[in-house]
Amino acid sequence: MTTLAWTDKLVLNQPTLDHTHQEFVELLNAYGEALDAGIDALPAYQALLAHTEAHFAMEEDWMARCGFEAQNCHASQHAMVLNVMREALRYANELNDREPLNILRTELAGWFPQHAEMMDAALVFTMEQRGFDPVTGECREPATVGDSHSCGSGSCA
């Protein structure tokens, strides 16, 4: 059973981010397949966590270069997801309780499309508006710090 299908709705037309998102979906599915097969899913989960840490760090670097506020709801959402993922890993390792890992499979599959379609799409829009090139890290129209909010609009609710 596929945990999360890669669909056109997840494509943001930003090649680096689309590739990273596709990797996230593949790793989430590999984790789900390990759970379904009844094998030790911990290595697949650890690979998903490592990818997610790098994925979010990349996006947050882009946000900083585009002028997003240091503390914004997009980055805060990343921090919350990573906190839960790390805590689930701690439960598995220290308490031998893998139930939180099982729950996260479904939760991540539900959360990710919404996050990509709203917050990541707004980041891509801001990057395009400011002429930010993620390959070079250069921005045609750099914003002043605090000029943009996490959702890409003028305010965050």
TrEMBL record:
This is Hemerythrin-like metal-binding protein. Signal peptide: none annotated. NCBIfam families: hemeryth_dom. Belongs to the hemerythrin family. Residues 16-122 form the Hemerythrin-like domain. Pfam families: Hemerythrin. Keywords: Iron, Metal-binding. It comes from Roseateles saccharophilus (Pseudomonas saccharophila).
